[in-house]
Specification:
The protein is an alpha/beta fold. Helices cover 36% and strands 14% of the residues. It is globular, with a radius of gyration of 21 Å. 40% of the residues are buried.
Length: 358
């Protein structure tokens, strides 16, 4: 009889769920009957996955007591639970509100994460041997048909698709200089069309007015559309977030703007991976910054502000915050030239990985 295994990622992170998808396939190939409990948009990641035997409703809350009760009840239906909830976060990343405990020094955080890979961590947690893996998406026949039509139009009309993921889940992933990057690539390569898969207002007004080659996809693409479109894109640019992780399912060139982690932590196994490393000494920091406005107790707010204050670049014209130092310290010329080189030549030589020393 097959061992029934429930894979639980927790949270609502789309990129996090993509990183967990190899676990599902490898467990199924090992002879397990795999059950999954996705939440929110994570359903779009695992839709049509042939390795999933059954979907479960996720728990209403994810506190320690609630999860213990949920997993205990699940054992009536499955033989084992693979709990990937905050596996990577609690091992290597640290929330600035310290709900996972006191934050170690920068040197200790870097030492703990040195040489570690987030895909390997998930495999170990599932009882699997670490190996080179990539995230996985499985389009429906109709979805693949639509993708093929767009790919054919690109080929016949000679245009290239660039997807810009302009923001991630936390402020260190807000691409505050994306306006100048998009404009530069747009102006230098007239055969490119640019698709903004997330909305972030800083510098967006600087985009060329009236251009028919720049598209805001919000409200037009559903989440699953945005993920699958990376399969036919000529380039995907963004932070350590959903779009670049979706592009990692494929050989699509991906320019990843790193902040809290290193390219080895996330992209060790990625194909056509072009890391952009900020110039500031504080990256990688292995911190998960949070918006203090979501916390009402003055001590919690002060704690978050103190943890993030050294990283903030202020802007009196935009809520007093212009973005994180690691985003502002991305070299504009390096990013733009990397993108142009990829699009002009098909691919460019990936930059050497920078691994922070402890």
């Amino acid at each position: 009889m097959k061992e029934k295994v429930l894979v639980f990622r927790g949270g609502q992170g789309i990129g996090d769920m993509l990183i967990a998808t190899p676990v599902i396939r490898l467990l199924a190939e090992a002879g397990c009957e795999v059950h999954v409990a996705p939440r929110g948009g994570q359903v779009q990641v695992v839709a049509n996955n042939p390795h999933i035997a059954k979907f479960h409703e996720p728990p209403a809350n994810e506190g320690p007591d609630e999860l213990f009760e949920y997993f205990s009840k699940s054992m009536d239906e499955v033989d084992r639970v693979v709990d990937l909830a905050f596996t990577i976060e609690k091992a290597y990343l640290h929330r600035v509100d310290q709900i996972w405990g006191e934050i170690p020094s920068l040197e200790d955080r870097r030492a703990a994460a040195a040489g570690q890979n987030y895909y390997d961590e998930n495999l170990r947690k599932a009882g699997l041997e670490p190996r080179p893996v990539l995230p996985e998406l499985y389009p429906l026949p109709k979805e693949q048909e639509n993708l093929d039509k767009i790919a054919l139009d690109k080929l016949e009309n000679g245009w290239k698709m660039v997807i810009w993921n302009t923001m991630g889940s936390t402020i260190n992933k807000f691409m505050v200089k994306c306006g100048r990057w998009i404009t530069a690539v747009h102006d230098r390569l007239p055969n490119t069309r640019h698709f903004l898969s997330a909305h972030f207002p800083v510098e967006i007004p600087s985009l060329p007015r009236g251009s028919k080659r720049i598209f805001q996809t919000e409200g037009f693409w559903q989440l699953r559309d945005a993920l699958l479109m990376t399969s036919i894109a000529d380039l995907v640019v963004g932070p350590e977030s959903a779009s670049v992780n979706a592009a990692a399912c494929y050989s699509t060139p991906k320019v990843i703007c790193y902040s809290h982690s290193t390219p080895d932590n996330l992209g060790r196994y990625y194909q056509n991976h072009y890391p952009i490393i900020p110039k500031c000494d504080c990256s990688p920091c292995y911190l998960i910054p949070l918006n203090f406005t979501g916390y009402w107790h003055w001590q919690e707010r002060l704690q978050i502000l103190e943890a993030t204050k050294p990283c903030l670049v202020k802007n009196p014209n935009y809520f007093d915050i212009k973005g994180f130092k690691c985003v502002w310290d991305i070299d504009d010329e390096e990013l733009i030239e990397t993108c142009v080189s990829i699009l002009e030549k098909g691919q460019a030589k990936p930059a050497a990985l920078k691994v922070a020393s402890a």
